[in-house]
Amino acid sequence: MYGDGRVTTGEEGSGRGRLVGRRVLLVVSGGIAAYKAAELVRRFRGEGAEVRVVATAGALRFVGAATFQALSGNRVRHDLWDEEAEAAMGHIELARWAEVVVAAPASAHLLARLAHGLADDLPTTLVLATEAPLLLVPAMNRVMWAHPATRANVALLRARGAVVLEPEEGEQACGESGPGRLPETPIVVGAVLSLLRPGSGKDALPAVLAGRRVVVTAGPTREPLDAVRYIGNRSSGRMGYAVARAARRAGAEVVLVSGPVALDSPAGVRAIRVETALEMREAALAAARGADLFVAVAAVADYRPARRETGKPAKDPKGALLALVPNPDVVAEVARLDPRPFVVGFAAETGDLEEHCRSKLERKGLDMIAGNLVGPDRGFDTEENALHVFWRGGEARLGPAPKDELARRLVALVARRLAGEEGS
Ligand code: CTP
Description:
Blueprint: E1 23-28, H1 34-46, E2 50-55, H2 59-62, H3 65-72, H4 83-88, H5 91-97, E3 100-106, H6 108-115, H7 122-129, E4 134-138, H8 142-146, H9 148-159, E5 163-164, E6 168-171, E7 177-181, H10 185-196, E8 213-218, E9 223-224, E10 230-231, H11 238-249, E11 253-258, E12 270-273, H12 277-288, E13 293-296, E14 303-305, E15 324-326, H13 330-335, E16 342-349, H14 353-363, E17 368-373, E18 384-391, E19 394-402, H15 403-423
Parallel strand pairs: 1-2, 1-3, 3-4, 4-5, 8-11, 8-13, 11-12, 13-16, 16-17
Antiparallel strand pairs: 6-7, 9-10, 14-15, 17-18, 18-19
Helix pairs in contact: 1-3, 5-7, 6-9, 11-15
The structure holds cytidine-5'-triphosphate.
């Protein structure tokens, strides 16, 4: 899984120059899969990309610099202190040159160094110094991949917007079998294409939110009853994630406050994971101060259990009564900030859409509300959706369309209204 959650194999149309003129910086770290990086260089070049390879000291113990040099057509860099190479293209220049940085294979050690922001060699320094999207392609022994330290490092990197591919299952060089193998070359090429897409192709979005700070809430909240049980809802987070991705593609700096969902953080977006409505309120209010736009897509639980039991209480054969207390209204609190961002709410309704939306618009002090009808087969947990958007003095219908497309149209509409408000 990566980027927009879709897995593109990249198989179709491979070698058709899909990366013509694109600048790929390939970081190779030390692991037996380093030899497969040579094939990646070939494939990137075959697609028309310009490739520069930076290797860790460990990588060069597995594969000689001459191999990468011959395949990439450029000198391989590995030393931060190489005066000759620095004179030709300084490391900051190289970091700026890259349109995408791909670390393949990314060893457990490289992931750990990147997660902690170390800059103790050329590859890690370049990753810190670049603004290009980062694609990490891990390969390692299956136990190292499953280790809590690696899991935590991967989670941290994803939360910061790096795209981390899942290693493949199978026979490993060490003789064991499990997840840890470098994904096949077409998968990696597909991920690169997906990361480079914002600037070109069908997903292009004009930079209507360039320089804007945007906060999006997404997913459900979980309200704990005891140590293991909770009250939740069926929100998948897909619509919120699509809005965050579209805002990023439109040039915004995006913070995504997300309840528990099974989605990867969109590339280039800062994701803050929360569980309860109270945690969502705290994270959302902190992020919303100074933001230009706040889009509340989360399905926040209206109530939470009045008390949270300790441990896991056994069932009572006589039954049980659950006392609930109301949760704060996150979007309404954001709308009361001063100064406040432009605030967009969502409303999932089963009927009387306009009436409910217009009343929520006023009650919560929103600038705009996107309503959608939900039922057994539409709205929540589905791929397609349709929105009816209302603001004071206007309305617009968007879709039905896939959630990514709908999010793009919504972002374009919001950007127009936002610019209009400021201009009036
Ligand atoms: N919302 C929120 N905090 C809450 C509840 C809702 O921020 N505690 C936001 C949602 O993210 C959404 C909007 O409010 O943008 C509308 O959500 P909805 O559940 O329809 O609103 P409610 O006030 O709960 O309305 P209802 O009375 O229909 O339950």
